[in-house]
Amino acid sequence: MSRSPREPRISRRIGRFTADRRILSLLLVVFAIGIAGWSWLSEHPKHNPWAPLDLRDPVGMATANKLLALKDDVELCRVTLDRSDVAFRALESTGSGACERPDRTQLEDYPLSPNTPIVTCPVAAALELWRTKTVRPAAREILGSELARMEHLGAYSCRRLYGGEEGPWSEHATGNAIDISAFVLEDGTRISLIADWDGTDDEARFLREVRDGACGVFATVLSPDYNAAHADHFHLDQESRWSGVCR
User: Fold this and answer.
1) Which of 42, 179, 244, 245 is the most buried (most CB within 10 A)?
2) CA-closest candidate to residue 175, choices 136, 244, 229, 119
């Protein structure tokens, strides 16, 4: 029995219709996944690269890139501090040459001792994130007391690395670094790097926990494990790169 010349055309149309339905179904699935993904990101701003950074949110997959964006945008950084309900003062620029300081930001009512030094805004933002998401929880969980204050050795120092007359300038030259030397708890316990880093008790564990936590928010973290010059403090800075140094 011979086939009608219309039959091949009908078969091709049916085939195209079936293929079109498959493509449409695939597009609907992709659309549904996209809607679900956007809904999930909206509910989890810590992972949402398009959500404004709020330092009160938990640290998530998008936090590092958001912190990176603050390094080149002082205004965005200060808006972030405002959004995060972090009190600070924006001070006039000062200095010249390698020690010019166009970004001078000072945290207010902040638990730093003996004073609250002037730093760059990215350092201020990282300090707040580190204090609230790492240091304070570690003090509570490891040492059983709340954090009272953090002691520092300074932030600004117009000098080159290692104190020489040649070589690259230190991040301290622009206030883009701070050296933390000790932590004091509300129960009166004082944990210092010089006295407790080489111990085997909870104080040493606490110091390593907070060092490791700093590596997630600062570009450079140098501890006593780095060299003898850092035996008594953590050096924390926000150098322009993000592939951080953690030692």
Assistant:
1) 179
2) 119
